[in-house]
Amino acid sequence: MRQKDVGQISPFFIKSSLARRNLQKFFSNRLALTGMTVVLLFVLGAVFAPLLTKYSPSYVDMTIRYQPLSAKHWLGTDSLGRDILTRLLYGGRVSLFVGIVSAFGASMIGITLGSLAGYFGGKVDSLILYISEIFMAFPSIMLVIILVGYTGRGLSNLIVIFAITGWTGGMRIVRGKIFSLREEAFVESCKANGIKSSSIMFRHLLPNTLGPVIVDFTLLTGGYVLQEAALSFLGLGVDPSIPTWGNMINAARSLQIIQNHVNLWLAPGITICLFTLAINFFGDGLRDVFDPTQ
Question: What domains can be seen in the chain, in order of their start residue?
Fold first, then answer.
């Protein structure tokens, strides 16, 4: 290729070639592709739950308690005669909502604080790092249990607690990226042209950090779904009247059910494991795409 031909290559061609290469890299990763497929199936199942089952998740029929697997009830019924598959589908709505909204809130806090710390540095950076170290000094699940015990159980409380305790990882990712970019020539050019610091941070620097942030978001979502299940099992999560995967395991924790009605705890347990593994595989695939060192 001649020198003048190299100079004629458009930025769009370069970007499209990079995007094509990243897509090929992602789709060649079988675990990541499988993870994405499983996650999409879970999301679609939760969204279209009314179309996939004719039962209500809260309908009680004591005449069909502890029904085994059958064509009418694919996963059987629980101690109150409720269809287990129906409760899994509707429970996925709440569990996935908690995971996604909590991860989004934590990511927004982390992005904002990381941008401030990385761009301004100095005392602002020291203060934000000091606050993050306080949060990181406690095991995450212990800190969540303490805050839930203080504020009380509930869906909104759980989301807020997850968001305010899970921002430290995203903050350090964004801080490190912006810290390395703030001395670049284009930043100096923006300052020379009178562009405000907020615009430089969020319009020019932040887009360069979104790749790792998206990966962190996917991993946070899986972690929060798992934590919600753990807290609900301990009686500290969502109200027991609301169907969630964690509440289903909590309702099946008696020794009599564990020994004689395996489907009551095995179905939600496998569901939680599959979703957590799938979204972690998906996140690992995204990391391979967005991380230039891979």
Answer: 31-290 (1.10.3720.10)
